[in-house]
Specification:
Elements lengths: L17 H12 L7 H11 L23
Helix pairs in contact: 1-2
Length: 70
């Protein structure tokens, strides 16, 4: 499966919980075992907000202007 410009991590069209997304990141890149998957995902999303579109949003979600999908 080839990487695209819109999906360089090759995550597909699936929506992830924040925990699942952190687990995917840990499996792809590795990570410090002392940080949880949630914290790992939050750090990654702070640096790469375009991936926030891959996260399931809670009903009380407040959209960020930098994500481009909400």
């Amino acid at each position: 499966m080839a990487k695209s410009d819109k999906d360089p991590l090759n995550l597909g069209q699936r929506l992830y919980t924040i925990e699942e997304f952190g687990s995917v990141l840990r499996n792809k890149f590795g990570g410090n075992n002392y940080i949880s998957n949630v914290i790992l995902a939050e750090i990654f999303l702070a640096k790469q907000p375009i991936y926030s579109c891959k996260i399931k949003k809670p009903k009380n979600h407040i959209s960020q202007k930098s994500c481009g999908c909400c």
